[in-house]
Every structure is written in C-alpha cells, then in structure tokens.
Amino acid sequence: MKTSSILLIGESGVGKTHYGAQVLKRLMKGDGRLRMDGAATNLEPFEAAMESLNEGMAAGHTATTTYVESVWPIIDTSGNKAELVWPDYGGEQVRAVSASRRIPAPWRARLISAPAWLLLIRLQQTRASDDVFSRPLNALKGMGTDNREVQLSDQARLIELLQMLVYVRGAISDEPLGSPKLCVLLSCWDELETDDQPLAVLKHRLPMLASFVTSTWAAPSLFGLSALERPLSPRERDMEYAARGPEHFGYVVLPDGQRSTDLTLPIQELLAGGS
To answer: Is 134 left (phi over 0), alpha (psi -120 to 50) or beta?
Structure first.
C-alpha cells in the first residue's frame, strides 16, 4: 500500500471543506470509482461539515490558522489500494502566500512531498479586469497622476502563485511537467449556468491562466465541480436536502462536458499511474 498525499490548493470560499465532506461520504457509501478500505483517521475536520450537510445547511468557515490532515485508506474498482492524505485548512493561508511571496516551512514540506496537486477555483469570485498585462504602459501616457493604481488581476495572481509553488517544488524544466500531477477543479459549477466543457469555460473566463496551465503541465486535467449541487444557507435548513441526504447531491463535469455524480473521479484521475 502506498501513501498518496494530495496538496489541496484553494483560497477562502472555493468549497474545499464541502468537497472534502462530500468525497468522504462517497467513499463511505462505496458506489463510486473509489471507496473506503478500512477505518479513516482524524475525521474531526469533516465531522462538523457532514453534520451541517445532513441538516440541509452549509458548513461553517474553516478557521484561518487551521491545517489538519485526515488519512483515508481507499481502494478502486480494480483493487488498487492507497492511503489518501486529505487536508483541511483556512483558505486565507493561500492568499497570504500570494501577498507575502513567502512560503512557510510546513507548506514547503507539503509541496515537495505531494505527488499531486488539486487546485480549486471559484470563477464567480475572480476578476479578469484590466491589469498590468492587459493594459500596456504606453496606454498610460498623458494620463493624470490621480488615476487609480493598476493592480494584478486574480488570474495573474493565481499564475504567480503556481509559479512560486513550482519553483519551491524544484520542478523547473524546459519540458511540460509530468510531476506533480495537476487537476484544476472549477467549483460551484451550478452557479455558472453553462453546458460548455471545463477547459472552454476556463479559457473564456481566465484565458491567461488557462494558457499557463496547459503549457506548463504535460497532461493537466480540468473538471467542473458542484459539490452541493445547490446553494445552502448556514442558518436555514433545506428540508429536501436533509430528507434525501447530501450523498444524493453533487456532481462533477468531466473534461468532455459530461456529468457524473461520482465526486471521486478527480481524485482517481490524480492517483492513476502513481506519482
């Protein structure tokens, strides 16, 4: 049995905890590509989230300073076994890395050891407005000094974040990267109201980021993700959700645009073939 640690990269509000709780429920239910193969350890980070979802309510925000890892023994439909190390943490930690351009020692260790990275992006909370890349300096000639400061857009910041992570990993190469494996999950897909393929959506909304990912990695995978399938309130119960159970909600959009209720597919994609 091998240990496969996935580095989950996502800022605050992208749905990391909800996805982890729903994946855990799918593994326990055991009707997907992956299922639980023994007792998981350290489920505290996800127990509160699962309780909230069982009540038809959204889970609370993960504390900024939290970083806890759970170990889930899993097996796929072919009998291949692994121990999946799944983290839960406050997304502000990722934002702090981008702002300070410093990577704390614990994160450095995770970057180096994890054979696969799972990047969650919520397109609805990103902006692709004018920045120093889309607005050339000669366009500023003749403008007054009272003009607003031109800042990096969110997609430029995400690219810079990935560049820092790749550098710390030591994965600098003239060839597209095969390791670490990368999967991009476009979360809260139900809010986008589109039938396009995930890559097409990313190219339309964040074209520079899409170009960076597809040119830097040899075989990146892109999925759409709706972990809950509908918006939930942290204070008011969704009675239908509670009655049917959260395990009956949620889906992923495959790279070809088809939908699947098996939320473990992106994980299986990253684990396939090892590191």
So the answer is: alpha
Contact 103, 168 (CB under 8 A): yes
Q: What is the mean pLDDT of residues 19-27?
A: 92
| SS3 label, residue 119 | strand
pLDDT tens string 26-36: 999 988 899 99
187 exposure class (CB count in 10 Å sphere: 0-12, 13-18, 19+):
buried
Q: What is the pLDDT of residue 275?
A: 43
- Coil vs helix vs strand at 183: strand
More confident call, 120 vs 89: 120
pTM for this one? 0.85
CATH class of 2-136+149-271: alpha beta
Nearest to 212 by CA among 151, 167, 158: 158
Render 36-101 in DSSP notation, one character per residue: E-S--B--HHHHHHHHHHHTT-PPPPPPTT-EEEEEEEEEETT--EEEEEEEEE-THHHHHHHHH-
In 3-state terms, what secondary structure has residue 139? helix
